[in-house]
Amino acid sequence: MKTLIAAILMVASSIASSGASAAPSAPSVANASRDDVTLSAHKADNFTFAVGNAQAGPSGTSSLFSSAFGGGTWNLLNKIDSTGALVGSPGSVLGSNISVNFTLGSDSKSGTWTITSSKSLQMDLVLGIHAGNATGSFLFDNLVLTAGQTQSGSFAINWTNNGGKVPGYSNLTMFYSNAALRTVAPVPEPSTYAMLLAGLALVGGMAWRRRRQGDARAVSAASLSAA
């Protein structure tokens, strides 16, 4: 009887032990870093990792990164769905329309993105990438966008889910703060340069004629004096 009880206890202990070892762990930052998101060949300025979905709620959940990045009030800019498509209408900042495009790679763990602003502005921009029940937030500090010029970048997911695997992309949320419009001096058109050169040539020609006329009068006066 004692032998049977001991055997039962051993089996129960083995089951409990295997169950504990199989229990899922929490998502982990693993190899993720600010290098994982770039824009115009520049990596993000900062990175933080938190369990949760930055896209939750009508205005997103900036609390997943705000304590790490600071920056005052963070405003929702855009929500991107699981296919890389924009959710709702394009966002705007201080009257500037912001166009974004995200393209997922074949592995669903990386891809490319672009951003274009209709006006020149500067702002702090955060990309909150959700995957595996966690969000990696990437900060671009004092990002400068020139009107009409598209900037391109890339992104990759390198953290792990509760099963220890790198998860596939789920969605992405963009936030901004400290935005300000920038005044950019207009670049002259080629025709403007042509007119400027023509004007300089005209002024130079007039100056040359006056100098020649002055020299001629001087020679004539000298000749009269000699006579």
From TrEMBL:
Biological source species: Herbaspirillum frisingense
Domain of life: Bacteria
InterPro entries: Ice-binding_C
Record protein name field: Ice-binding protein C-terminal domain-containing protein
Signal peptide start-end: 1-22
Domain Ice-binding protein C-terminal: 186-211
Pfam families membership: PEP-CTERM
Membrane-spanning parts: none
Protein's UniProt keywords contain Isomerase: no
Keywords linked to the UniProt accession: Signal
